[in-house]
Structure formats: structure tokens, C-alpha cells
Write a structure and sequence with these properties.
With 642 residues, the protein is an alpha+beta fold. It contains 20 helices and 33 strands. The structure holds zinc ion (ZN) (2 copies). The site of one zinc ion has 5 residues, from loops. It catalyses: tRNA(Thr) + L-threonine + ATP = L-threonyl-tRNA(Thr) + AMP + diphosphate + H(+).
């Protein structure tokens, strides 16, 4: 049989770890987390399945390996918590992006001192190099076991699973209901850190028990952990909620409601510029602007399927005994625009764009600044086209996405999600649409990965994942094929043959949620928004009152040149004014003292530390305008806000 690419003679009932050890060098084997046969992950202590033809190692540094290390670290943490706080009850502890958590039912919140103590205990358990052992019990035996340990949440989980048998993993005195696999011993966990505590509800249900969630992270080695912790530290400095206050852009006010954003003058201006840019860019690319109402009759949501499939995430209201749904998506009005008149094959594609405000009922626990909100604006479009136009339409959207991500300086990659098990539409339709998606990306030379079976039931899609300055990944753009809605709403066009045909519909967003995109952009740039988006592009600072008249003249000059400028005439020391302008991340400071007044000039300082120095007013305006336009020139675009 093939073991790590080598042909090896393997005995029946051989142990995975032993077999891999034989095929690998000592150094390589030290970094093996679990074994893999086909898609099945196996503990190193498991026997090689009799039907296995190729056994591969899963290394610690791979995504799969890291996930197992992190989940094993969650078990290790639970072991330590139970040791230090025996009355704490355990619930679940999954690995998540960049780490893991475990939820405990405990009489009080854990403190930072508790976390230190837990970490120290975890290190002792790592030192003891305890084994992770697996046993399979009947559900009845497992329930008895967990009842004896007073672990009522585990009992509930087993009852809900309704399986005949369950597997249990033990490390030290701690036993957990778990599918596995796990690292072989606690000594394999080489680099971890507990990060924070937060409240959580059992099963995310606010009517159930309040739990204490401890977040942590783990890596294959201390160096990778150190790098990640440094990034977290930097992310804290760049937290968009903190910067949003510092830059006076927005606030989230509980008097209004959780997950709802109030935009202050500067933030509303940033939005207005972004939205104005998007509208113009869409018009240039052959889209038409449309706009629908915020609330639509319940019957329409029944017809679209949202009422059956998405109702829990929607808000409803009643007027004159008629129930209305507040829109969570913008599709319906757009389809009604299409249906408003007879369409010929020559009229297609129709591309409808709307900066559509949507409301979605996200659970309160997941709300986070601008990144997860309940009310947001999507840069949403629906492209309704003939099947033979699908590929070109997708190319157009993908190119649009690429242009905007380049403009903002985000690296990006694409993921294609294909037909899931439960799906509507014929195999032929799915194949055509999936081919159109992959074909379009191939033609553009865009890299992509495929998530087999991960598409929505109504069609395949492309997700664009962007990478920010801290190497965090965010999903913004999506391009989604849809076979259901054109059917449910009986969309049609008259073909060349004079007969009625069903068009294809693409839903697509580019920035996604404007709120979320601004949040990501703030963290990506550390608040130093590109000059074209900065609410104030130049700040004029005077040394004393003697320069006030000239400062006003400079202000007027810049404004006439289309530069957003402000003047700080306060009777404060220059150093203080400079520091404040720096905190506001203003791209340019124009300093005026007696010397500058005499020379009818300004002393220019840039936010990035560059010091262009003494410039005439024309030169200063030219310098700032160049910085504003630079990102567009780079991409062969042009834009001005007005
Ligand atoms: Zn587990
Ligand atoms: Zn849609």
C-alpha cells in the first residue's frame, strides 16, 4: 500500500502512527498530527482501515493539521478548567478560524487571572505528555458516564444526536464527547495562548443558559504563534470601532437598537463618496439604476421562497391588516422592473443596480461594530440575461471586482461553490452555470479554488475573498447564479424564434455591505483612508492669529480646486494642532506662519511622514490632487466626487 507516497508492506490491523513512522524521517514524523486515508482523518493510534490503499500524514503546519491541534488544545483547556474549577460544566469547544473556544457553565465570569492560572495548568498537562485516548460507548453508557460526572450538557447533546454509539476522547482526567480525531498526546501541543472571555448562550439561544466562552489560539510552533499575537496586537490598534470614534465617523447606539449604525457627518461623507463612485462606475459599465421600497407584501416573500426559508432572519410589520416583510435582499423589486414590460432577446442583458438597504435579524451575540450589523446597504445588482450571455456577464462582474479590489489595494482570490446534494434545477443547468463561472475565471486568468457541493440550493456561485494588511481574510464580493427566482416569478423574454424563453439571473455584490466594507477598509488602512475617500483631505493650521486672513484665503483656494479642506484657527500651540490632525489621519497638513504668509505659500506635511515643505498654493493643490487621483490613474479609471 502507498504510505506518504512510498510503497510499503502493511500488516493487517497495523497502527496508523507506526506505519507513518516507518515511511517518514524522524524529523518529519515529529510534525505529524493525524493520518489521512482518502477523506477520512484517523488518530495516529487508530488501526489502518482494511480498505485503505493510500495513507497520508497530516502535518502540523497545514490548515487541516492546525484545526486538529486547535481543537485538541480546546480539550486541553477544558481539562485544566475542570481541574481548577471542578464545578464548571463543559459544553462544546470547536476550533474556529485562527483558534478555538470552549464554552463553560460557571457561576461567575472568568477573570484575566483565571486565564493565567488555566494556561499554567495547561502547560503542566503538556509537560505530562498525557495521551488522547478514544473509546466508543453505546449512547446509554455514555449518558450514564456523563450523568455521573454531572455533565448535563453532554447528556443533552447525546440525546439530541440519537445515535446508537458515540465516541469519547479522554486526556488526563477529562473526558469529552467528540468525533475526533485528536493529536496523540498533549505534548504535541507546542504553542498556544488564551486570549479572552466572553458571554455566550447555550446553543446560541438567549432563552437558554448563559455560558462563559474562553477564546484561545494555537499554532504548530512558537514562531507562528508569536507572529499571530503580534498581528492581533496590531489589529487591536486598528479596531474600526475604536478608530470610528477617534475619527468621528459613526456610532452604534443602543437607544436605536443593536446592530444599527448612526453615521456622523464625516462618516456619512465617506459613505456618500463611496456610493457616488459606485453609482458612476456602474453607469459606465452598462448598469441601470433602480430602486425598490423597504417593505414589500408578505405574499411576495412567500412567492420568492424567503418566507419559508429565511423568515427567522426577517422583520415584519403590519399596516391596514396587511403583513409586510422588511426586505433582507433586493431581488424582488428588480425582478418586478424586468417584468414591467415585454422583453425581447435584443433587450438583454438587463443590469439593475441599487444601493439597497436591507435588514437581517442577526443574533445579538454575533453583532460586531460595522462588520456584523442588522441594517446595512448592499451594492447589489441583478443581471438578467440569455443563457448564451451568462459567461460574458460573469467576466464583466469579475473584472469589475478586480478593478475595485486593485483600487483599494486588496489582494483577493476566488472560490467557486458547486452543486449541493439538495438542489433544484436540472443537472444540465447546473453544469452550464458552473462551466460559465469557471470558464469566466479561467479566461481572466484569475486563480480560484472549488468548494465541492457548497453552493446554495438555487445555483452555483463565486465568492471573492480579500486579504487585508494583517493577512486576515474577508468575504466581500459574490456572484451567484439563480435558477429558482426567474421560475417563481415567471420571468421571460421573446426569443429570435418568437417563442417565450426563461432568462438566467445573476445576483452580485462587489463591495458587499457598504458598512462592512468601510469597517474592513478602516482596519486595513489603520484609519488612514485613501485621500479620495478622506472626509478632510487637507487641514490648514495656523501658528498664531496673525495668519488667520491668509488661512481663510488658502481654504477658499483649495475648495475652488475641489479639495475638501478645513482650517484650524484655534488659539492652540501648533504642536497640539498637528497632533490632532495626525490623529484624524488627515492626508495633508498645510502649516502657515509669518514666513508662509510673506511668501504667499504653505508648508506641506503629508500623513505618511513625507515632508514636501514650502509650496506655492498652486503647487500644494497640484500635489494633493495628484494623490487623490493616483489610485484611479493606476487602474485606468477616473473619478471625481461632486
Ligand atoms: Zn473534541
Ligand atoms: Zn439578489
Amino acid at each position: 500500500m502507498q504510505v506518504a507516497g512510498k510503497e510499503l508492506e502493511v500488516q493487517q490491523d497495523a497502527i496508523c502512527g507506526e506505519v507513518l513512522k516507518e515511511a517518514l524521517s524522524k524529523k518529519q514524523f515529529k510534525n505529524v498530527v493525524v493520518a489521512k486515508c482518502g477523506d477520512t482523518l484517523l488518530d495516529l493510534t487508530a488501526t489502518v482501515p482494511s480498505d485503505c490503499t493510500a495513507l497520508e500524514p497530516v502535518m502540523a503546519s497545514t490548515d487541516e493539521g492546525l484545526e486538529i491541534i486547535r481543537h485538541s488544545t480546546a480539550h486541553l483547556m477544558a481539562e485544566a478548567v475542570k481541574k481548577l474549577y471542578p464545578t464548571a460544566k463543559v459544553t462544546i469547544g470547536p476550533s474556529i478560524a485562527n483558534g478555538f473556544y470552549y464554552d463553560f457553565d460557571y457561576e461567575r465570569p472568568f477573570t484575566p487571572e483565571d486565564l493565567e492560572a488555566i494556561e499554567a495548568e495547561m502547560l503542566r498537562r503538556v509537560g505530562a505528555n498525557e495521551e488522547f485516548s478514544r473509546e466508543v460507548l453505546s449512547s446509554a453508557e455514555a449518558i450514564e458516564k456523563f450523568e455521573a460526572m454531572n455533565e448535563s450538557y453532554k447528556v443533552e447533546l447525546i440525546n439530541d444526536l440519537g445515535e446508537e454509539t458515540v465516541s469519547i476522547y479522554s486526556n488526563g482526567d477529562f473526558a469529552d464527547l467528540c468525533r475526533g480525531p485528536h493529536v496523540a498526546r498533549t505534548g504535541m501541543i507546542k504553542a498556544f495562548k488564551l486570549l479572552s472571555v466572553a458571554g455566550a448562550y447555550w446553543r446560541g439561544d438567549e432563552n437558554r443558559e448563559q455560558l462563559q466562552r474562553i477564546y484561545g489560539t494555537a499554532f504548530a510552533d512558537p514562531k507562528a504563534l508569536k507572529k499571530h499575537l503580534a498581528q492581533l496586537e496590531e489589529a487591536k490598534k486598528r479596531d474600526h470601532r475604536k478608530l470610528g470614534t477617534q475619527l468621528d465617523l459613526f456610532s452604534v447606539n443602543n437607544e436605536v437598537g443593536a446592530g444599527m449604525t448612526i453615521w456622523h457627518p464625516k462618516g456619512a461623507l465617506v459613505r456618500a463618496i463611496l456610493e457616488d463612485f459606485e453609482r458612476k462606475e456602474h453607469l459606465k459599465r452598462g448598469y441601470q439604476l433602480v430602486q425598490g421600497p423597504l417593505i414589500l407584501k408578505k405574499e411576495l416573500w412567500e412567492r420568492s421562497g424567503h418566507y419559508d426559508n429565511y423568515r427567522e432572519n426577517m422583520y415584519f410589520t403590519e399596516i391596514d391588516e396587511q403583513s409586510y416583510g422588511i426586505k433582507p435582499m433586493n431581488c424582488l423589486s428588480h425582478m418586478l422592473v424586468f417584468k414591467s414590460r415585454l422583453r425581447s432577446y435584443r433587450d438583454l442583458p438587463q443590469r439593475y443596480f441599487e444601493l439597497g438597504v436591507v435588514h437581517r435579524h442577526e443574533k445579538s451575540g454575533v453583532l460586531h461594530g460595522l462588520l456584523r450589523v442588522r441594517s446595512f446597504t448592499q451594492d447589489d445588482a441583478h443581471l438578467i440575461c440569455r443563457p448564451d450571455q451568462l459567461r460574458d456577464e460573469i467576466i464583466g462582474v469579475a473584472k469589475f471586482v478586480g478593478d475595485l479590489m486593485d483600487l483599494f489595494g486588496f489582494e483577493y482570490q476566488a472560490e467557486i461553490s458547486t452543486k449541493p446534494e439538495k438542489a433544484i434545477g436540472s443537472d444540465e443547468d447546473w453544469e452550464k452555470a458552473t462551466d460559465a463561472l469557471t470558464g469566466a475565471l479561467n479566461e481572466m486568468g484569475m486563480d480560484y479554488s472549488i468548494n465541492e457541493g457548497d453552493g446554495a440550493f438555487y445555483g452555483p456561485k463565486i465568492d471573492i475573498i480579500i486579504k487585508d494588511a494583517l493577512e486576515r481574510r474577508w468575504q466581500c464580493a459574490t456572484i451567484q447564479c439563480d435558477f429558482t427566482l426567474p421560475d417563481r416569478f415567471d420571468l421571460s423574454y421573446v426569443g429570435e424564434d418568437g417563442a417565450k424563453h426563461r432568462p438566467v439571473m445573476l445576483h452580485r455584490v462587489i463591495l458587499g455591505s457598504i458598512e462592512r466594507f468601510i469597517g474592513v477598509l478602516i482596519e486595513h488602512t489603520g484609519g488612514a483612508l485613501p485621500a479620495w475617500l478622506s472626509p478632510v483631505q487637507a487641514k490648514i493650521l495656523t501658528v498664531t492669529d496673525a495668519q488667520n486672513d491668509f488661512a481663510q484665503k488658502v481654504l477658499q483656494f483649495l475648495q475652488e480646486k475641489g479639495i475638501r479642506a478645513e482650517v484650524d484657527l484655534r488659539n492652540e500651540k501648533l504642536g497640539y494642532k498637528v497632533r490632532e490632525a495626525q490623529l484624524e489621519k488627515t492626508p495633508y497638513m498645510l502649516i502657515i506662519g509669518d514666513k508662509e504668509v510673506a511668501a504667499e505659500s504653505v508648508n506641506v506635511r503629508a500623513r505618511d511622514g513625507e515632508d514636501p515643505g514650502l509650496k506655492s498654493l498652486d503647487e500644494a493643490a497640484e500635489l494633493i490632487s495628484t494623490a487623490i487621483n493616483e489610485p484611479f490613474k493606476r487602474g485606468g479609471m477616473s473619478y471625481s466626487f461632486s
